[in-house]
Structures are given as C-alpha cells and as structure tokens.
UniProtKB/TrEMBL annotation:
Domain DUF3870 intervals: 12-104
Pfam families: DUF3870 (PF12986)
Lineage of origin: Bacteria, Bacillati, Bacillota, Clostridia, Eubacteriales
InterPro entries: DUF3870
Originating species: Desulfoscipio geothermicus DSM 3669
Protein name as catalogued: DUF3870 domain-containing protein
Length: 110
C-alpha cells in the first residue's frame, strides 16, 4: 500500500541553516529534514535528510525511526548526540525540531 493510500500518514519538513565553513554549507546552505509520521501513533516511520554522506543519512534515519513525537524532544536529541559527533549536528537537531513543531502545530498533537 502506498503512503497516499494510508490516510493516517502525513509528511512534514523542517529546515535549519548549516554552519559556515562546513562542506554541507558549501553545497546546501540549509539542511532539510522530511518526516513521515503515523498520526495514530505519532511515531516517525520514515525520514530523509539533505546531507552529503549516505552514511550520515542512514545513521540519522535509524536514530529517528520509531521516535514518538509525544515524548520530550530532549529524549531524541540525547539519543542522537550519544551516537553522532558531526559539525552540522546543531543544524540537524534544529531541522528535526522544526519538522516536529510543524507536525504539532498542523495536526494539533497534545
């Protein structure tokens, strides 16, 4: 079944400026995050990140998949910080938070 056929899935995005002097900034200037969220469970079921390295993208996807948006963002932030140390980590976290906030604002998650 495709995502569009599943009425309980929504796609949200968030963006953040990348740190100057990093390869990511040279290529993109901003990082983008897309989250596919199951509205019944408020869990992230799939994600995508505009990063240069496929390994970085894979690790980020693994870390955010299954995260429940009802949990405090600090839980996800700490999990990511425990497993990653990259120059653009602050921008990545800000972009994820922006996408989650967009989800909460748009779909009124309490």
């Amino acid at each position: 079944m495709g995502y569009l056929e599943k009425n309980d899935y929504v796609l949200v995005s968030g963006f953040a400026q990348t740190p100057k002097g990093t390869p990511l900034n040279e290529m993109y200037k901003h990082i983008g995050v897309q989250l596919l969220v199951d509205r019944k469970s408020n869990r992230i079921i799939k994600s995508d990140f505009s990063v240069i390295s496929s390994l970085t993208k894979e690790v980020l996807q693994d870390l955010v998949q299954g995260y429940c948006i009802d949990e405090p963002f600090g839980n996800l932030e700490n999990k990511i910080k425990k497993h990653m140390s990259i120059p653009s980590l602050g921008a990545v976290l800000q972009a994820i938070k922006s996408a989650i906030d967009r989800y909460k604002d748009t779909f009124k998650v309490l």
